[in-house]
Amino acid sequence: xxxxxxxxxxxxxxxxxxxxxxxxxxxxxxxxxxxxxxxxxxxxxxxxxxxxxxxxxxxxxxxxxxxxxxxxxxxxxxxxxxxxxxxxxxxxxxxxxxxxxxxxxxxxxxxxxxxxxxxxxxxxxxxxxxxxxxxxxxxxxxxxxxxxxxxxxxxxxxxxxxxxxxxxxxxxxxxxxxxxxxxxxxxxxxxxxxxxxxxxxxxxxxxxxxxxx
Length: 213
Ligand code: URA
Fold this sequence. Notes:
Layout: H1 12-24, H2 28-37, E1 54-55, E2 61-65, H3 70-75, H4 82-92, E3 107-111, H5 125-142, E4 146-150, H6 152-159, H7 165-168, E5 172-175, E6 178-183, H8 186-191, H9 196-212
Parallel strand pairs: 2-3, 2-4, 4-6
Antiparallel strand pairs: 1-3, 5-6
Helix pairs in contact: 1-5, 5-6
């Protein structure tokens, strides 16, 4: 049982279907197929592609973003646009890359929702809640040692956070029994570069923790 945000418009049957489908998946490939086939989330209708993951599924580190934007929707991969380029630079600075074949230096990347919301708005609480069973299963199957939660959306969806990310950043929480660090979202850092020093401090803390696992 997970503490989900309020479920105003969520159709209970769809949520039940999501939970059942997710539970049946025993591999990440099966989970991708199940997500791609899931019709219970309205975001899918407006999206060109399902954005499931990128990076190395064996990585010690799993990074969870918010939702695909325009570039990700076109490419079918997370974090390929401007914020993705900054994300890659940030993690390169602590020796982590999505293309690494070594679990110690690799990362695995997904988002709270796999479909682009219209006008790049945040996914609603209902949309996030609908996809939450798949996200929980995604984490369980990837089985990372550490998790990074980028921005407000994963904090709210996975932890029911009520504080904003500028308060939460740098704090460790627990998701699926794994340590999870709240960090500023690279899209926010592009808008407010002054906050990069805080992101840098959080990356250093993450590096230290990665060295221990
Ligand atoms: N922002 C996100 O949160 N995820 C992406 O995949 C791209 C931008």
